[in-house]
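Lab notebook page, bench 4
Experiment: in silico fold of construct C2
Operator: M.H.
Input chain length: 290 residues
Purpose: comparison with the prior construct
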Amino acid sequence: MKIAWLTDLHLNLVCETEVNKLCDVILNTDSDAILITGDIASARQLCRQLEYLATRLMKPIYFVLGNHDYYGSSIRQQNSDVGRLAKKNPYLVWLSRSGIVQLSPDTCLIGHEGLADGRLGDPLGSTVVLNDYLHIEELRQPTKELRIKVQNKLGDAAARYLRKQLKSVVAAGYTKIIVALHVPPFPEACWHLGQNTDDNFLPHFGCRATGAVLKAFSLKHADIDMSIYCGHTHSGGYAQILPNLQVHTSGAEYRDPRISGFIYVDATTIEGRYTMYEPLKHCVTCLQGT
């Protein structure tokens, strides 16, 4: 099984011709499915863009949302709208609602948005103000402290969901897990131009709550291999957190949606095989920004 991995597409910033070009490129790879790890389009265009991708590609599209997918709306409203869309479109599989997706007898896919929870780095001392805090209803708070409390709750909710999914993974007997997130779950996976993000940006670029759950699981289950795929920072990198826990963070450019790489799962044997690589030179572009 060959899965095309994309992230931080920001399709609201490009014209329909560019979206068509992207779809053509994906179709030409002969991928069996698509994985999108968030920031597909802004709230006003999100559902329309998802429907368009499903119509053009006619393959399973596994996805999670990113912070930009909520711009111009609220998390509550967007989750409701996307949930209704995913229920009626068989090609759209929203991992935050779908449960475990079996990819092979021993490999499964799980995921969640896992938005930045304001716990890494120096949350109170950070001078960074993202557009999230202006354009997402729940994050528009009168004080930094109140906004961080909201972020904490969002991170905790993502962690609870992943913990529940991981229990099901063990019960089902899977030995390999692919985890799709939007926001990197560890400081080591938050990149900017080849280096890890500093404490000023970390509160906005990572989710400590999801990282704690995933790391604790991997420490307890050394026989289960976990590979995490995420975006958000617009800079790419690889982090080996534990012998059985690794994170692929993809770079991205605004107004230039591209394939980040491919994930291979061997469906002919019990053993799963998945590897991220950059088949096109332009897939490794790294820019700061979210």
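Observations: The chain has one domain: 2-284. The radius of gyration is 17 Å.
Next step: discuss at group meeting.
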